[in-house]
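Could you join me in thinking about how sequence relates to backbone shape in a protein? Label the sequence line and the structure token line clearly, so we can match residues to local backbone shapes. Once you have written the record down, we can walk along the chain together.
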Amino acid sequence: MATYGSDQLAALADPSRRAIFEALRDGPRAVGELAADLPISRPAVSQHLKVLKAAGLVTDRAVGTRRLYRLEPAGIAALRAWLDGMWSDALKAFAELAESTEEEQS
């Protein structure tokens, strides 16, 4: 079973998917537009978008004969919440270690 946030992290682990994800920060784009700016084919961009969509990081909608992809705020918020939780846990563990080291030195 995937942990909360791990699907999004796995999806963004690939450099091409990160490039697509970052390109969508500027607004919705079609597969052809994304492919024109990347060193990968349109079918490859489509496959990467499928992974990003499955991870909840992008959504799409039909506009005429094209599909426009955009970032999914809820998926990004879920990833951020997971990362914030990891960061909080790491800071808490560091604080506990620092306090126990200080007590040992006293």
